[in-house]
Design a protein that fits this description.
- The structure is a single chain.
- This protein is α+β, with helices and mostly antiparallel strands.
- Helix content is 25%, strand content 11%.
- The protein has a domain of 55 residues.
- The longest helix is centred in the middle third of the chain and has 13 residues.
Length: 88
C-alpha cells in the first residue's frame, strides 16, 4: 500500500472551470452502446418510450442518439446522407 503513495505525491490537483458545464453525466441514451448496428425505427422508439415511461425523463434524461447504421449507403443527388428506408 505504501509503495503506491509515491506515485501521486508530486501531482497537482486537477483544475476545473466553474462555468456550469458538465455538472451531470450525459443525460441520455446512445443506441451503439446497447445494439451496435442492430437497430430499426421500432427499437429506437421503444427505447425513447422506455426513458419516458420509467420516469428517467422526469429526472433529467433528455436525448436519444441514433449513433451508427441509420443511413443508406447511397447518398442523394446532392451528396447528402439519407436514412436507410429498410430500418426507418
Amino acid at each position: 500500500m505504501l509503495a503506491g503513495t509515491g506515485l501521486t505525491a508530486g501531482q497537482a490537483p486537477a483544475g476545473a472551470l466553474d462555468n456550469g458545464v458538465a455538472r451531470t453525466p450525459p443525460m441520455g441514451w446512445n443506441s451503439w452502446n446497447t445494439f451496435g448496428c442492430n437497430i430499426n425505427e421500432s427499437l429506437i422508439r421503444g427505447m425513447a418510450d422506455a426513458i419516458v415511461n420509467s420516469g428517467m425523463r422526469d429526472l433529467g434524461y433528455q436525448y436519444v442518439v441514433v449513433d451508427d447504421c441509420w443511413f443508406n449507403p447511397n447518398r442523394d443527388s446532392s451528396g447528402n446522407l439519407q436514412g436507410d428506408p429498410s430500418r426507418f
